[in-house]
Amino acid sequence: MTWLDDISFPMLVLACVMLGLAPFFPEPHVWEKLKMLFAGELVRPIDIIDLVMHGTPWVLLILKLIRTAVVKMI
Questions:
Q1: Are 21 and 30 in contact (CB under 8 A)?
Q2: How far is it, in rounded angstroms, from Cα 8 to Cα 11?
Q3: What percent of the chain has pLDDT over 70?
Q4: Residue 29's closest CA among 18, 13, 43?
Q5: Most buried among 4, 26, 36, 74, using CB within 10 Å?
Q6: Cβ atoms 57, 16 nearer than 8 A
């Protein structure tokens, strides 16, 4: 997981804001896709790819936060 250590926090936060939340209006895309997922409406392949694309920065940021906390504990 050293590749995750090479990614800076500011870059991940920027990716979350720019890609993870785009478009900002009427609601963030990732939020729309998560609502579809929990409602069981996420069935079209384009919607699944869209969720993966907009959700990846958030997953990476969470993983980096967990990894940073674990490394500091050791």
A1: yes
A2: 5
A3: 100
A4: 18
A5: 36
A6: yes
